[in-house]
Amino acid sequence: QLQLVESGGGLVRPGGSLRLSCATSGFPFDEYLIAWFRQAPGKGREGVSCISGLGETTEYVDAVKGRFSIPRDNAKNTVYLQMNDLKPEDTAVYYCAASRYFVSSLRARDYYYWGQGTQVTVSS
Q1: For residue range 2-32, what is the model confidence (pLDDT) as tens digits?
Q2: Tens of pLDDT along 99-121?
Q3: Residue 60: how many CB atoms within 10 A of its CB?
Q4: Are strands 68-69 and 3-7 parallel, antiparallel or unpaired?
Q5: How far apart are CA 83 and CA 55, in angstroms?
Q6: Which residues is 80 bridged to in the sheet?
Q7: First CA to last CA across the chain, in angstroms?
Q8: pLDDT tens digit string along 34-83?
């Protein structure tokens, strides 16, 4: 059974850092595009970043470029979201998702498998 489990969320002050983890199981990890999405209260789900199966392609939404990175450890079947210089507008529930049919995409409709989400709150 394919599973994605996020962890690492929490409360952090503006300017701080967090590293989210997306641990996966039940599928050939290096064949899947993995992405991070986020959803703030009252807003739609936004694609934040994605990384291709072998890690050769990454994509970031403009709002996080230069602050976030998306390392991938295929030996551990895990993708991370390293978030630096966090801002209050980064507050959201963060989800990881998997897709087998795209090399790069930040569109939620391109992803079939989703984790349960982890809350990130940036506040002083």
Answers
A1: 899 999 999 999 999 999 999 999 999 999 9
A2: 998 889 999 999 999 999 999 99
A3: 18
A4: unpaired
A5: 18
A6: 21
A7: 40
A8: 999 999 999 999 999 999 999 899 999 999 999 999 999 989 999 999 99
User: In the block, which residue shows the tokens 């641990």?
Assistant: 23
Predicted pLDDT of residue 98: 97
Name the amino acid, one letter, at 45: R
For residue 20, give every residue at least 6 positions away whose Cβ sits within 8 Å of its Cβ, in sequence order, or none. 6, 7, 8, 9, 36, 80, 81, 83, 94, 96, 118, 120
The DSSP string of 77-108 is TEEEEEE-S--GGG-EEEEEEEESS-SS---G
Over its C-alpha atoms, the chain yields an Rg (Å, rounded) of 13
**Side-chain-facing half-sphere of 64: CA atoms under 13 Å:** 25
Kindly tell me the burial class for residue 81, based on how many C-beta atoms sit within 10 Å of its own C-beta (0-12, 13-18, 19 or more): buried
Quick one: DSSP state of residue 57? -
Detail the DSSP E strand segments found in the chain. 3-7, 10-12, 18-25, 33-39, 46-51, 58-60, 68-69, 72-73, 78-83, 92-99, 113-114, 118-122
Tokens of 97: 């998702």
